[in-house]
Design a protein that fits this description.
The longest helix has about 35 residues, at about 15-50. The protein is mainly α. It is built from 6 helices and no strands.
Length: about 120
């Protein structure tokens, strides 16, 4: 930390502003890492659905529903509005009996996304 203080004094940087910018950058990196991990998880579930012959439709819907629930705050941002809607439609095709439940989850995620944007 002493090195950082020396650099800040030598270059006339305001330590408080520097700390604030550094915190913002660290937070951004953490958010990006979380979103990349979540995106990879969504692709992993979908690829398993496509290519694993032992992976049932029921398992896919259960896993993807849990995924949506876990990342509801950021799901639309992570997989995009079009993809999240497409995944919901796929879950409905696979499990028509729970259509209302999946639509409700999608609407909740979209509301959160709209509130964050505006």
């Amino acid at each position: 930390m002493r090195f950082l203080d020396d650099v800040l004094k030598k270059h006339y940087l305001d330590k408080e502003n520097f700390d604030t910018v550094l915190k913002i950058l660290n937070d951004k990196v953490n958010i990006d890492n979380k979103e990349n991990g979540a995106y990879s998880k969504s692709k992993e579930i979908y690829n398993k659905f496509l290519y694993d012959l032992k992976y049932s439709y029921t398992e896919f819907v259960t896993d993807f529903y849990r995924f949506f629930e876990e990342y509801k705050q950021d799901i639309v941002k992570i997989v995009s509005t079009g993809s999240s809607q497409w995944y919901i439609e796929l879950m409905i095709k696979v499990d028509k009996e729970e259509q209302e439940k999946y639509q409700k989850l999608y609407l909740e995620a979209m509301k959160i996304y709209i509130l964050i944007i505006y």
